[in-house]
Amino acid sequence: MTQLQLNMAMKVLRTILAWGVALLLFFPLGWLVLTAFKTELQAISVPPLLFFTPTLENFSIVQERSDYMHYATNSLITSVLSTILGLALAFPAAYAMAFIKGKYTKDILMWMLSTKMMPAVGALVPIYVVAQTTGLLDSLTVLTIIFTLSNLPIMVWMLYSNFKEIPGEILEASRMDGATLWQEFRLVLLPLTMGGLASTGLLCLVLSWNEAFWSLNLSSAKAGTLAFLIASYSSPEGLFWAKLSAASFMAIGPIVVFGWFSQKQLVQGLTFGAVK
Amino acid sequence: MAYLELRGIEKSFGEARVIKGVNLEIQPGEFVVFVGPSGCGKSTLLRLIAGLETTTAGAILLEGRDITNLPSSKRDLAMVFQSYALYPHMSVYENMSFALKLAKADPAVIEEKVARAANILNLNDYLKRTPKELSGGQRQRVAIGRAIVRAPKVFLFDEPLSNLDAALRGQTRIEIAKLHRDLGATTIYVTHDQVEAMTLADRVVVLRDGVIEQVGTPLDLYDRPANQFVAQFIGTPQMNVISAAKIPSFGPDSKLKIPDGWFVGLRPESVVLVPGGAGHFRAKVELIEALGAETLIYVSTEQGAQLVARQTARTGLVVGDSVGIEIDTTTVHFFDALGRIAAIN
Question: pLDDT band for position A175 (50/70/90)?
């Protein structure tokens, strides 16, 4: 084989491999979408049906049985609020860590991140009890707070690595130019970190929207998010695959569309500092 | 009364004492250069004056007013950073007008001042560009322009030329000198390059390990160094410093006896090569650097002292030749065992 043929073969192999991985990742999602348009009988048929007459019946049943908009609104409120709150807390924290480095800055950063390594369930009982005694169980407040806190380490890290790309001398120059701290934030730091801020916010939005563990454990019919809506179809009368799929489809739909439009920002944010 | 006065300034970072008590008075319109090897504290001292670091002890007075604890934004000083530190998201015009805008100056005044500064610095054609679209030299000029526009009480320069290539550095150095002549602004300039210090300064402050070694005009430092450190720091090639053991006297006939443990300092131009047999010492040529305008000849004496001689004339000598060395004894410096300047009576 010549070098050219070898290169060609490698290229084909790589393409097949890439498609294989992509399909593998996409398969559950694709299957979910397909199932959402089947009848319950078609959904559990063996062998699985690939071709069938699609029906919208599941969607109307889901909408009838439970108020989609109610859960969607809860999801929207908690993710937007937790994102805003998270950014408000993470911004000054990352600023201090990036520009006013102390002896323990690195340790604090590692400690913050290490909290993400603990399984969430480890903190479930104390948090549940706190929520219960403060009367915040099944409220949007508690979900917003929990989402904010659980995303905070990642947000601080992302903003920190974003801020670190900015030479401190630029901020010092603005101080020499007579800028107050607020002007330094607003006129210099903010415009320079807009990209990082946006991708951090986007990621937090996605993570909060997809959060299931805490919403399932701390909320119910009143403050439940879309995760709660989906889970409600796996019980108690047994599994209804088609309806479960329809509910899931409606739950992930908005965030997939959102992610599609912001993918450039998201990728940029997640690979900060990785490449020059 | 001094315009800017440093009184017993000290700065520590944790355990490390970086500035160990600095006293200095700067007169209005003066161009003062802080020079010293890296780690001597010259940049830290500048940052203390700028208010970008807090002083551990001592006071900074500007026009008699204590500004030691004033934030940078209230000191009315302008600084040109080594990295230029331009605002990357703003155009050249916005960069230069930023301070005035913050000070809420009249837009017409801002425009006029920026235009004048741009004119001085040849930046008229670049006002709409962003820093990214400029060359290193142009960025440097914008950084200087940003300082000029404000007409601050004192200009602070932190190694502003070290990011430029050699040719541009020389050119910008001349521009800065002209600018100072035209504007007459009080300037403090930090550099590790003694040529910049010598060419720009009205007065040079030589720092080492957080302490001022000597303050004086460039030629003062060159002709009358206070100690061996200053003597060797100023001037290229370095002053020859030889232990008395290797030069016990200037020839057998000399009445001058140099005490044990002392050192003799000779500027390269004070070392004159004469035909073998003549002069104070015998020596052998080890290396010749012909630079065109001047020639540097490295020799080693019979006693083992290494010397460099500088002469403007070209030389017919080659490596290995024997020569005599004649010392211009009126320009010899003596240093005691501690490196302090000393005199022989």
Answer: very high
Nearest chain A residue to B77, by CA = A176
User: Do the domain assignments include residue A198?
Assistant: yes
Contact A175 B150 (CB under 8 A): no
Q: What percent of chain B has pLDDT over 70?
A: 97
Q: Is residue A276 part of a domain?
A: no
Residues A144 and A73 occupy one common structural domain:
yes
Could you tell me the residue range of the domain that residue A252 belongs to? 59-270
A150 and A32 within one domain: no
**In chain B, beta strands by DSSP E:** 4-13, 16-26, 31-35, 57-62, 65-66, 77-80, 154-158, 187-191, 203-208, 211-216, 240-243, 263-266, 271-275, 281-290, 295-301, 306-311, 322-327, 333-335, 341-342
Total domains in chain A come to 2
For residue B46, give every residue at least 6 positions away whose Cβ sits within 8 Å of its Cβ, in sequence order, or none: B34, B79, B156, B158, B188, B190
Q: Residue B20 pLDDT more than 90?
A: yes
Q: What is the pLDDT of residues B228-246, one digit of tens each?
A: 999 999 998 999 999 887 8
Chain B 53-82, residues with CB within 8 Å of chain A CB atoms: 71-74, 77-79, 81-82
ipTM of this complex > 0.95?
no
CATH of the domain at A224: 1.10.3720.10
Judge if A116 and A152 occupy the same domain.
Answer: yes
Q: How confident is the model over A62-83, as pLDDT tens digits?
A: 888 888 889 999 999 999 999 9
Residues A27, A79, single domain; the answer is no
Name the residue facing B85 among A170, A183, A191 (closest C-beta): A170
Q: Do residues A63 and A18 both lie within one domain?
A: no
Same domain, A229 and A133: yes
- A173/B81 CB distance under 8 A: yes
The 10s digit of each residue's pLDDT in B154-209 is 999 999 998 888 888 888 899 899 999 988 899 999 999 989 999 999 999 999 99
Q: Does B163 touch chain A (CB under 8 A)?
A: no
Enumerate the residues of chain A whose CB falls inside 8 A of the CB of residue B88: 170, 192
Lateral strand order in the sheet of B187-191: B77-80, B154-158, B187-191, B31-35, B203-208, B211-216
How many pairs of residues across A and B have Cβ atoms under 8 Å apart?
Answer: 58
- Give A173→chain B minimum CA distance, Å: 6
Q: Identify which of A103, A169, A176 has the shortest CB distance to residue B83.
A: A169
From the list A176, A178, A192, the residue facing B89 with the nearest CB is A192
Q: Which of A57, A78, A100 is the last residue of a domain?
A: A57
Q: pLDDT tens digits, residue range B1-13?
A: 689 999 999 999 9
